[in-house]
Amino acid sequence: xxxxxxxxxxxxxxxxxxxxxxxxxxxxxxxxxxxxxxxxxxxxxxxxxxxxxxxxxxxxxxxxxxxxxxxxxxxxxxxxxxxxxxxxxxxxxxxxxxxxxxxxxxxxxxxxxxxxxxx
Length: 119
Ligand code: HEM
Description:
mainly alpha, binds protoporphyrin IX containing FE
């Protein structure tokens, strides 16, 4: 059987490290920081890790909201969406993930665009 993306990413601990780094980047990114001001970052890191693990084929259960519900009323722009993906790519690269794996994650994230943008 083929490896899952979850396995190629190295499992839960390595995924948690990527999500934590990406959220720290969002909080420091001028294009995104205003969105995350006053939010419970540790909780978002936990939910983000669950979401990423489950979505990549891991055994975790995601207990957060749907992508549409979580971003409803925020009217997120294409520029913000790209900035978020750029941060995640930087986190993956910073942690030594192979370009093929980074590309796969970008593809998955991009597929969620319609659920996240301008809701
Ligand atoms: C494919 C891209 C994205 C994914 C996979 C994603 C994933 C998530 C997840 C899993 C949550 C937690 C859900 C919950 O609270 O129940 C969340 C919340 C949130 N996301 Fe995203 N997100 C994406 C794009 C973005 C972008 C581009 C922004 C900012 C411009 C953003 C800003 C936020 C904020 C501010 C929250 C917290 C909402 C609140 O608690 O009020 N997200 N996101």
